[in-house]
Write a structure and sequence with these properties.
Elements: H1 3-20, H2 22-47, H3 56-69, H4 74-101, H5 106-122, H6 129-145, H7 150-179
Length: 184
């Protein structure tokens, strides 16, 4: 079948899906989950204020985590939940080790990033290496912006990740229950 014919059929299929309303419902659910995680993260950062600028930074980190965890299928969401938490812990531990024991410069940070990526590969986080590094870098950034101890910055980031991951997991479960086939 020619490319344009396949493309036309795919476009027609997408239009049928849009008429059914499911994409609209899914978009609304994801938006609600992101907002809920945002407010939870904001509350956490108001409770333990470690950010120099505002609690909105941690709230956004919680909100972004929902998007990393929530998937179209329950099994993927559940798997993503554990992968997100695990890679966050690896990144946080690497950041604390770097900040506490290694002279801060770009060369040493590059080595820690490379080792963190390698460790994530060895632990089986093949698709989460970037998340390990982003957690590492975020904690390093916040530790340079404020006077809080690196372990406190790491703990706060992990708290924000945990909140967002839990919201994504619960949202994925509820969506799974709503779409589960009903037996008569």
């Amino acid at each position: 079948m020619p490319w344009f014919a396949r493309h036309f059929l795919q476009l027609e299929e997408k239009q049928i899906q849009l008429r059914r309303g499911e994409p609209y419902l899914r978009s609304a659910i994801i938006t609600i989950l992101v907002l809920f995680a945002y407010f939870l993260g904001y509350g956490l950062d108001e409770l333990v204020p470690t950010h120099v600028t505002a609690a909105v930074i941690g709230a956004l980190w919680s909100a972004v985590t929902v998007l990393a965890v929530f998937k179209d299928h329950w099994q993927e969401t559940r798997s993503s939940f554990w992968a997100t938490l695990s890679s966050g812990v690896v990144g946080a531990v690497a950041a604390v080790i770097y900040l506490a024991y290694i002279p801060p410069n770009m060369a040493s940070l590059a080595v820690v990033m490379a080792l963190s990526l390698l460790l994530s590969q060895l632990l089986g986080f093949t698709d989460r290496g970037r998340q390990v590094v982003s957690t590492l870098l975020l904690i390093v950034i916040f530790s340079h912006l404020n006077t809080s101890a690196p372990w406190l910055n790491a703990t706060m980031r992990m708290g924000e990740v945990l909140l967002g991951a839990m919201v994504g997991l619960v949202g994925g479960y509820l969506l799974h229950i709503l779409h589960a086939p009903k037996s008569v």
